[in-house]
Amino acid sequence: MWMIEDYIAIGVAGILLITAIIAAIFFLKNRKKMKRENSIKNEPDSELQRLSLSFRTATDNKVSFDGSHYNLDDPMIDAAASRKNLVENYIFEELQKATNNFSLNNLIEGSVYHGRLNGEDVAIKRVPTEIISRIEFHLSHQRITHHPNMIRLLGTSAMDGPDSFLVLEYASNGSLKDWIRGGLAIKSQFIASCNRFLNWNQRLKICLDAANALQFLHHTVNPCQVRLSMRNIFLDHDFNAKIGCLGLALSLEHKIEEGYLAPEYVRENTVSPSADVFAFGVVMLEVLSGRPPLEINGQKLSDEIKIVLRSENAEELRDWMDCTLGESYSFDGAVKVVNLARSCVEDDATARPSAGQIAAKLLNLVEELNIQTHMGNLFVKGGG
Known about the structure:
Radius of gyration: 31 Å
Number of helices: 14
Largest sheet: 7 strands, mixed
Mean pLDDT: 76
Distance between the termini: 130 Å
Structural class: alpha+beta
Oligomer: single chain
Order of helices and strands: HHEHEHEEEHEEHEHEEHHHHHHHE
Helix content: 40-55%
Low-confidence stretches: 35-84, 372-377, 379-384
Strand order of the largest sheet: 1-2-6-7-5-4-3
């Protein structure tokens, strides 16, 4: 028979058991809470996670590409910078409205139209639909960042039919080809400065800008095929030069003129940074002389300059320079720039300088000649 002491002992044991259970519950709760808090602290920002994806399509119709501005070796992604890398996905009706239903009055050249989107000027280019897939594939496999001397790809509009569209940063002063080889008059509604020509300071600055962009591309894109020509170098309102973006280069309908092609490309179809340097050298020669890369008689500009320099005749070199420059340039400075361009078009690819070396030499020339790097407002009036 149970004594009262037994009941008391059982009661005390029960109380102790309940107390232990409650303590265990509190302990487990606190442990879970601490784990959750630590998890939150260690979890990357969800926005950064989304932005770090190399390719995504979100509900806001934007495609994001990872990469940061200017610091090529920084493994971290800055959220603010990444947001600027967003490429808009436009619907066709938006582009129709932006270009007044692709009016002839908005046609700049070929398949490129001037448009207004979100209150800003843009260039809208009609391209084969397959180009959009090529661009998306390339961008998803490359680390893409912006550079001030490159035209930005702002958006795309993929259609079901054969044609789609690229939306590009607008260069209000057209292409370098327009200025050096004519074409300004027919674009007077788009280019306010069409009654003028580029002076020596501007030409040297344009070469430096393009060299900086080329150096950037060779550092960040592999393999790199810039398809450089005067047609793919554009001038903004302040006459800063910008190389056409990746999407624009991929969508070029025209074949690159033979005069831009490096010997190894002609022989073996070899694509390399050195081949880009050759094309850049030809562009420099065009900027200096005002002559086309391939004359009517079939002579290449890259061969012509070698003949001129071998003559060691100063007057022959002066005659070779663009006559619109007049006497507005330092002849000694011009000789240095011509020789730099000449080194870029060596037949031997291994003898050509790198884009970085070209940019450094041009910068030194700019500093030697006391030329400011921002000269968009310096012009020489055209004749007449």
